[in-house]
Design brief:
Blueprint: E1 12-16, H1 27-35, E2 40-43, H2 58-70, E3 76-79, H3 95-100, E4 104-107, H4 112-121, E5 126-128, H5 143-154, E6 161-162, E7 172-175, E8 178-187, H6 188-193, E9 207-213, H7 217-229, H8 232-235, E10 238-245, H9 261-268, E11 276-278, E12 291-293, E13 296-300, E14 305-308
Parallel strand pairs: 1-2, 1-3, 3-4, 4-5, 8-9, 9-10, 10-11
Antiparallel strand pairs: 5-12, 6-14, 7-11, 8-13, 13-14
Length: 310
């Protein structure tokens, strides 16, 4: 795997809209937030355009990403927001160009589709991080989240470091054990959507991270079952489970008609008998941890510790 050069103060960040359109009032705030980190900013056309619910046409969004990787003046690329649409541009991206011009590439949620493609087709380490027009401009954006983000995008391949929750939020164990492997995954919906496509996630010998938002528990059940039937949990060396924000029963007044997420995890994930660490503070939540997807990590459920080792 190619670990891109860590960013430094004064570098130029290219902002791209790979998914949903950015609200016009959010763009200047997002640009200012990135500048406040000490970076210069170039906003792609996809940050300004709208095609229905998308940040411009598929061609425009793909061209923006290709151009940001091509431009030697751009040091890193931040997806400005998530939403929907990244999967649609996968066939339009120049993977050889991206592989030959490795740069920090950051985002999460719908951006999971791009993380999987870049990790597997470009052998490029990418970063599962909060984004400029969403978390960056929220008043509740916290010191832990900022510190984790900055650490992630500025490190180099020589750096080994721990991925730790805030001290007040403990990780928990679903299946005890230790596991080591390349960290992959992201949003459950997008990971599941990759199945049966040329961009299908490969979990063989890897550590699979999953999180999601606004899904009924039966939807979580359905997607996890699909991944299970596809052999993705049997293939994996271990699993890390992040935040499941607003993922609850469809009818909260009839709890007897639903299953707890804990029960779903126990019934679908635990039988694979792979180490599983839960309650990682990462996903659609604040505070949130940034993750280096594609790097090798090792975790131990006994000590509730995760370390990036390669």
């Amino acid at each position: 795997m190619k670990i891109p050069k860590g960013l430094k103060i004064g570098d130029t960040i290219g902002l791209v809209g790979a998914s949903s359109a950015t609200p016009p009032e959010s763009l200047p705030l997002a640009i200012e937030a990135v500048k406040n980190l000490g970076f210069k900013v170039v906003a792609g056309e996809s940050c300004k355009e709208r095609h229905g619910y998308l940040a411009g046409s598929d061609k425009l969004r793909a061209n923006d990403i290709n151009q940001m990787f091509r431009d030697p003046e751009i040091d890193g690329i931040f997806c400005i927001r998530g939403g929907y649409g990244a999967t649609k541009i996968l066939p339009l991206l120049d993977y050889e160009l991206i592989k030959e011009n490795p740069k920090v590439f950051a985002g999460y949620s719908d951006v999971t589709a791009l993380h999987i493609a870049f990790n597997q087709l470009c052998e490029l380490v990418t970063y599962h991080t909060p984004m400029p027009s969403t978390e960056f401009i929220k008043p509740e954006m916290d010191d832990y989240t900022w510190a984790s983000f900055i650490e992630s995008i500025t490190l180099t391949e020589e750096n080994h470091f721990k991925l730790a929750n805030p001290k007040t939020q403990q990780m928990t164990t679903l299946v005890a054990g230790k596991a080591t492997g390349q960290l992959v995954g992201g949003n459950l919906t997008l990971v599941t959507a990759s199945l049966g496509t040329p961009y299908e996630i490969d979990t063989k010998g890897k550590i699979l991270f999953l999180e999601d938002i606004d899904e009924y528990e039966r939807s979580i059940d359905r997607m996890l079952t699909q991944l299970k039937l596809a052999g993705k949990f049997d293939d994996a060396a271990g699993l890390l489970l992040g935040a499941w924000t607003n993922c609850g029963p469809q009818n909260p007044n009839r709890p007897d008609h639903s299953l707890r997420l804990q029960t779903i995890f126990e019934e679908i994930l635990a039988p694979a008998n792979k180490p599983i660490l839960m309650d990682i503070v990462c996903g659609h939540c604040l505070p949130t941890m940034s993750l280096p997807l594609g790097r090798t990590v090792s975790f131990d459920t006994a000590t509730k510790s995760i370390e990036v080792i390669g």
